[in-house]
């Protein structure tokens, strides 16, 4: 089978790699350089925590498990050391306790812990003495997307996939035997199936095929598609797992650096405007309050991350009902799902069926009178 995969982010390279290793003739097309889109601006928290409804939780859990399986022999991009979240106000306490109860009932690996246990897991983090609601999500993880992507890209090439970078797609159409992809250099690729893994550009690519793929674009500062991420310089802090606090989310960023996120600051995030230096200053102030020994730390960069966000917030996976030769993958949970989506999508393209995709088919949008948009991310416990 001849397959063209469009988009070389973490999802696209995973799909191309899995298809090529199963014997498909794969061409991976990327209009820029692999990993320069959404994959390079992700907090990269691997989890199924708070992912609702249940079908979305189960899909993300499959992604979390796939990461652990792939990393079992030791890899440099995956750190499955867990995630600690602590709550200080009543709303956050209720939210966290309810989540722990719900996830425990599903068999999800989580435990409630004491402040002393939290301090043992998080040396250098200031856990308040009066904090009585702390959860340790023991198998959650953070990922370094670009080393993961490089690994999958190497596997794809070793299995015979052709990779065409800095090559845009200008046309998609059905043919008598499958489909054709017109590239910006005027050449045409023929295939049995095209797999769209273009993330936040999915609607744009769908339009080339004359079909609707409801994925949100940036609309206004602070909307659901954007959020700030900041990175420090190397700091003398021992931190091996994610931390979610009332004021700041933080995780290791490699090389002794920390990645910082505070969802309440995202109201001014705009990908077309350089971040206000005050955002970085506030993130650093919060980091110094949360973590000891950051007096000399500086913020190396603040960027506006852009999310791939289907119109209802849920993953899209399946052949488009109006163009069955076009298989569409789009998800906000790309880093979590990538190692599962690769083989699962490949299996479907080659004729199988993945039961975990049942609730996520593109046809759910057909004839929908109204699509409920996803809520802008908020701090845990915010109403």
Automatic annotation (TrEMBL):
SUPFAM superfamilies per record: FAD/NAD(P)-binding domain
UniProt superkingdom: Bacteria
InterPro entries, alphabetized: FAD-dep_OxRdtase (IPR006076), FAD/NAD-bd_sf (IPR036188)
The UniProt record lists the keyword Oxidoreductase: yes
FAD dependent oxidoreductase domain segment(s): 2-346
Keyword vocabulary terms for this entry: Oxidoreductase
Keyword Oxidoreductase on entry: yes
Molecular-function annotations in GO: oxidoreductase activity
CC annotations in GO: cytoplasm
Protein name per Swiss-Prot or TrEMBL: FAD dependent oxidoreductase domain-containing protein
């Amino acid at each position: 089978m001849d397959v063209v995969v469009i988009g070389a982010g973490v999802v696209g390279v995973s799909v191309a790699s899995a298809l090529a290793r199963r014997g498909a003739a794969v061409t991976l097309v990327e209009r820029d350089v692999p990993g320069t889109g959404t994959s390079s601006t992700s907090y990269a928290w691997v989890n199924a925590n708070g992912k609702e409804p249940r079908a979305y939780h189960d899909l993300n859990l499959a992604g979390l498990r796939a990461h652990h399986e792939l990393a079992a022999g030791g890899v440099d991009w995956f750190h499955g050391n867990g995630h600690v979240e602590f709550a200080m106000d009543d709303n956050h306490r209720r939210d966290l306790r309810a989540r722990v109860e719900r996830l425990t009932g599903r068999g999800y690996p989580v435990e409630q812990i004491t402040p002393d246990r939290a301090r043992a897991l998080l040396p250098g983090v200031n856990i308040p003495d009066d904090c009585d609601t702390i959860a340790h999500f023991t198998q959650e993880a953070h990922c370094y997307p670009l080393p993961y992507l490089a690994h999958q890209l190497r596997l794809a090439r070793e299995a015979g996939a052709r990779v065409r970078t800095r090559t845009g797609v200008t046309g998609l159409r059905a043919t008598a035997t499958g489909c054709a992809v017109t590239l910006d250099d005027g050449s045409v690729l023929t295939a049995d199936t095209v797999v769209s893994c273009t993330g936040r550009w999915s609607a744009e690519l769908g339009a080339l095929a004359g079909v609707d793929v409801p994925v949100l674009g940036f609309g206004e500062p602070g909307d659901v598609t954007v959020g700030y991420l900041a990175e420090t310089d190397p700091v003398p802090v021992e931190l091996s797992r994610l931390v979610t606090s009332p004021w700041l989310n933080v995780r290791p960023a490699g090389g002794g650096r920390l990645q910082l996120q505070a969802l309440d600051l995202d109201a001014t995030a705009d990908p077309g405007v350089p971040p206000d230096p005050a955002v970085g200053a506030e993130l650093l102030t919060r980091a110094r309050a949360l973590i000891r020994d950051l007096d000399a730390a500086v913020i190396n960069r603040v960027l506006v991350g852009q999310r791939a966000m289907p119109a209802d917030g849920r993953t899209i996976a399946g052949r488009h009902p109006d163009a069955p030769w076009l298989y569409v993958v789009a998800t906000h949970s790309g880093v979590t799902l990538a190692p599962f989506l690769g083989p699962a999508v490949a299996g479907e393209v080659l004729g199988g069926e993945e039961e975990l995709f049942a609730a996520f088919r593109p046809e759910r949008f057909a004839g929908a009178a109204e699509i409920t948009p996803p809520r802008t991310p908020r701090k845990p416990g915010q109403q």
